[in-house]
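Issue 218. Parser rejects a valid record. Input:
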Amino acid sequence: MKYLVAILYIVFVFSAQAQFLIVKDIVFEGNKKTKSFIIERELTFKRGDTLWLPYLKKHFEQSEQNILKTALFNFATIDTLKTFNHLAYIKISVIERWYLWPIPIFEQASRNINTWFYEKDYDKINYGLFVAQANFRGRDELLRAIARFGFREQYGFAYTIPHFLNSNTVGIELKALYYRQKQLAYKNIDNKPIYIASNKYLYTNYDFTFELSYRPKLYATHSIEISYKQHQIADSLFLLNPYFIYDSLQQISYPCISYFFHYDKTNSIAYPTKGFFVEQTSTFEGNLHSTFNIPSIRLKGALYYPVGKRLYHAHGLTLYYSHTTKKGYLVQKAFGYKTSPRGYELYLIDGNGYLLWQNSLRFMLVKPQIQNIYKLKNERFAKFHYAFYLSLNGDVAYVTNHHYEPLTNQWLYGYGIGLDFVTYYDITLRTEFSFNHLGKSGIYFHFSTFI
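Output the parser choked on:
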């Protein structure tokens, strides 16, 4: 009997060994500018690792998704180049994106594209030049500069270094911004902005920021941001709204410190269909020994999963609260700016805290397709992908406001249908027909996707 056990053990050991590959080397193709270590940082394996064959495909798929989520490449594929005596040579092929973007600015300057379209704010136009150099030095660094004129003037510069001093885990960002306006909204009435215009500058704002980030693992990122800010308004604006900045302050300078945590296990940054992410931001603005000190916290998470053939669920929850008991037009913004429940894109709803629960059921109308524009010789643009999704959407929201402005301190509901277009360079266009609890409806456009 003991001989039979020994034989079975030997057979098991040899059969188990046959199920493994050892990563002997990793070779790269297509990274004409990107340094190899930038790609290797995103892999779920490294040289010398032993990989179990039944999970090899999963390692490759997850690593391809991680590479694409750097926003440096349009396509990425991983495969074994050759194997010998359980030693594997793995090949990673990528198609890099176009990295230098000198973009002329001619844009609407309203809160969002929907207010510009529906409220016909055609005089609110910005123009200028925005220059972005992505993947600077081939190290995933990002240089940005902007000179914007018109409705809202802005001048700024930012330099992001994700791999500071060749570190795979530590990054920094330096940023300086300056804003000034001759016309702007200074208060809300019935959830609509009221504007003032002058031939002199009514509002100026400085913002200098240093950020230190730490990414110890593939999917988790921590960062600490330290900034110095200044707000100042003209006498005429102060007379119209002494609470424009905060509690009868016409000018204020203060430090700000924030801690940010992000954990992302989704399969795409543009349009996730699987996985989840969670993030939180804790911020303290102001001075401890002054009347202006505002702590705040923001929690956000989303879950994406398939529920059938070509059918996907998406759920997202955002919670925000700032400890502000006094009036401040600048510091008490909730919905109608960068985010809002569906059906409320045209409403400004201000408060010191909010809840937003978003849900979407998506049907893949057109599966992801890869096409080639043969007349274009540059592979960064010639090869592209696209997909279409139909969506059924429903949102629930609540805004807290100590001063009981319209649509605050009550439940808000929005629902509707949509058509989502997804393509390369992380472009997502959502066209949605939505209703709100007031019985109002409209067609709204969005250029990003949370839920």
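Fixed in the parser; the record now loads. The first strand starts at residue 20 and ends at 29.
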